[in-house]
Amino acid sequence: MSMAELLIDFIREHRSLTILLILGPALIYLAIYFFAPFLITILYSIGFIGRRGVITWKVTIEFYRQAFRGVYLKVFYNSIVLAAITTLGTLVMSYPLAYYLALKAPKKWKNTLVIGIIVPYWVSFLLRTYALMNILTMLGQMFTYEAVVIGMVYDYLPFMILPLYASLEKLDKSLLEASYTLGASPLKTFLKVTLPLSKPGIASGTILVFVPAIGEFVVPVMLGGASVPTIGVITWNLFLKFHNWWRGAALSILYIAVVLAALIIYVKKVGELEI
Amino acid sequence: MVEKTDYIASKVENMVILRDIVKKFGKVVASDHVNMEIKRNEFFSLLGPSGSGKTTLLRIIAGLEKPDSGIVILDGRDVTNLPPYKRNIGMVFQHLALFPHMTVYDNIAYGLKIRKLSNSEVKKRVYDMLELVKMPPEIFANRKPGQLSGGQQQRVAIARALVTEPAVLLLDEPLGALDLKIRQHMMLELKRIQRTVGTTFIYVTHDQGEALVMSDRIAVIREGRVEQVGTPSEVYEKPKTKFVASFIGEANFIDGIVKEEGISTSIGPIKVSRTHNLLGKRVVVSIRPERIRIGEEARFLENSYEGKIREVVYKGDTLIVMVTLDGIGLKVSIPSTHPESRRLDINTRTWVGWNAGDEAGVFEV
Fold first, then answer.
1. CA nearest to B92, candidates B235, B22, B193, B19
2. Closest-CA residue to B192 (of B155, B152, B219)
3. Among B114, B115, B168, which would you mutate to test the A interface (most chain A Cβ atoms within 10 Å of its Cβ)?
4. B229-252 b/e (C-beta count within 10 Å ≥ 16 → b)
5. Cβ contact (<8 Å) for A174 and B88?
6. How do residues A57-81 score in pLDDT, each as one tens digit?
7. Taking 70 as the threshold, does the pLDDT of residue B1 lie above it?
8. Mean pLDDT of the region A171-196
9. Chain A CA closest to residue B102
10. By CB distance 3.0 to 4.6 Å, which of A148, B177, B179, B273 could disulfide with A224?
11. Nearest by CB: A183 against B95, B98, B164
12. B100 and chain A: CB distance < 8 Å anywhere?
């Protein structure tokens, strides 16, 4: 028997071991960089880890109680409103564009146009935000709520355009023609056929924009200054300004719970998703 | 004045009139000065190979394509510049185009709801339609298109297109995706539905069998032009061009030159009924395989030749015999019950023949 045959036989006989070997690196990576920090955050939030990282062997809900204070709830509320405005903004800006790209643009230009939308986003996010700062300063809009909204809509735009484009692109154009022949005007056709059939794209885009937008930190800080405190900004302050890791951790876990709950409700309501 | 009256009479008699339609896609001429009249209540087929421009004509009637020039008259009205949603048409698409997010009921009700009919009227008409296409509403009304078989989807698509009582029903190769058995069944169903509702059907197909079975009249289309319009028996028995003869049914073609006494060919002279003043011209004689007789009975016909049997193919009801004579291959089709059929052995000599007038046509080349 050759080495190769021996190896194949070994793999056949130890299937579960082989799978473990293949998945191993990814599992180790996730364990070190994702599960462990997450666990540590939970342990901080319940006071299990004390000052200087010493284990206290105690559990308390005190930090969660603190995180439920009105001031934080208000920030939570503001973050969700900002995320909702951002999502709506990207949706309103993206839909006509995605519609044009998927259904109206000349075939030979399609890919070029799609790449044209993506390419600017190859530039680092930070660099683009700095560039925006210059523009907003020129317009006299810096450190306002509007500046934050403009920045966030701009940053999240491709996350809305691409899923919308993907779902509209799949739309069978003869469905629209069928609607016309049945007497429906283009507007009615849009409302009764195009829009309902692009729902999975709208749902995916909404989630891809809304969820990270709630926790957004960089844009509110850079473009809003202190004027737009979001949950991301407050958490950052708790950890790095006030060194209150326990309350920061509780706030983080609460944030994850809220987003997860919202996501589950949304997915159940909308049904299938396309990402 | 006479012309004007004729024009009005034509509008009354014909559901669709195409006048000098030209449509180009880039350099490709899809419709090349097409004129056509489609009568009220007839089952009219546009037959041609793929890329012949038959679907373009259908889409021009529907209003889904705008002709570069020409006039479309639908139900006595010039609709050339009207969008499809103002034309009162029904259309069954090649891939059916049922709305996947709607139930069977909502698909069929779509056009009625657009026309703002009352709920009770919508329900009555949708149910009547489901009955017509033999889809019991209590079983199918609430299903989604994805839960139906190909043949059932077909029926829903037809019901959806007919429920608004359109002036014409346009069908774009709707049976192409079905397998043979269901296709044959649906052909008869379409014919039955057309007789029941009496709507004008315009049917696009590349399948000559479908066109022959269902149509009252057929227009044979080639490279954007109308080659011939006629009843199925006219286009089959009396094709006007070599293309029509070859596209519809099967035909043998023999090259020759027209002489006083008949057509001179490499297998000998062929007598035909008429030569259409083609004296001295190079022509091709077309003869259908089932018109050629074989064996002793062929020996004393007006055109009679001796040849060698190359191949015998048994096809159940018929027997296809390939005979070569002086380098030319002839395809002969006889009923398999024919007494001669048992004596046809490969590589034996036999007679083939037919009478003048049996030919499908003589075409100039």
1. B193
2. B155
3. B114
4. bbebeebbeebbbbbbbbbbbebb
5. no
6. 889 999 999 888 888 999 999 999 9
7. no
8. 96
9. A193
10. A148
11. B164
12. yes
Q: With CB atoms and an 8 Å threshold, state whether B111 touches A178.
A: no
B99 contacts chain A (CB < 8 A):
yes
Cβ of residue B115 closer than 8 Å to a chain A Cβ: yes
Q: A37-50: string of b/e by CB count within 10 Å (b at 16+)? A: eeeebbbbbbbbbe
Q: Which among B67, B63, B101, B100 is positioned nearest to B83, based on CA atoms?
A: B63
Question: pLDDT digits over B234-270, tens only?
Answer: 999 999 999 999 999 899 999 999 988 889 998 889 9
Q: What are the φ and ψ backbone dihedral angles of B354, each rounded to 5 degrees?
A: -160, 165
Asked if B321 contacts B307 with a C-beta cutoff of 8 angstroms, the reply is no
Separation of alpha carbons B22 and B70, rounded Å: 6
Q: In this structure, which amino acid lies at residue A56?
A: T
Q: Is the pLDDT of residue B330 over 90?
A: yes
Please list the helix, strand and coil fractions of chain A in percent, rounded to the nearest 5, in that order. 80, 0, 20
Domains of chain A, by residue range, sit at 3-60, 69-270
Alpha-carbon gap, residue B15 to B35, rounded angstroms = 14
For residue B83, the chain A residue with the least C-alpha distance is A180
Token pair for B227: 């080659």
In this complex, the residue of A178, A192, A193 whose CB is nearest that of residue B93 is: A178
CA dist., res. B138 & res. B159, Å (int): 16
Facing residues of B195 across strands?
Answer: none
Distance CA(B340)–CA(B293), nearest Å, equals: 10
Global pTM value: 0.83
What contacts B296, CB < 8 A, 6 or more positions away?
B340, B351
| Contact with chain B for residue A191, Cβ under 8 A | no
> What is the Cα–Cα distance from B362 to B365, expressed in whole angstroms?
10
User: How many other CB atoms sit within 10 Å of the CB of residue A152?
Assistant: 28
Distance of CA B50 to CAs A96, B47, B172, Å?
35, 9, 12
Strand, helix or coil at B313? Answer: strand
Compute the nearest-CA separation of A115 from chain B (Å): 27
B16-34: burial string, b at 16+ Cβ within 10 Å, e else: bbbbebebeeeeebbbbeb
Which structure tokens are listed for A157? 């735009």
B159 in Cβ contact with B132 (< 8 Å): yes
Calpha distance B308→B324 (Å, rounded): 5
Q: CB of B111 within 8 Å of any CB in chain A?
A: yes
> Cα separation of B17 and B7, whole Å?
10
**A174 lies within 8 A of chain B by CB:** yes
Phi-psi group of B2: left, alpha or beta (phi > 0 → left; psi -120 to 50 → alpha; rest → beta): alpha
Superfamily of domain A69-270 in CATH is MetI-like (1.10.3720.10)
A3 — phi, psi (to 5°)?
A: -60, -45
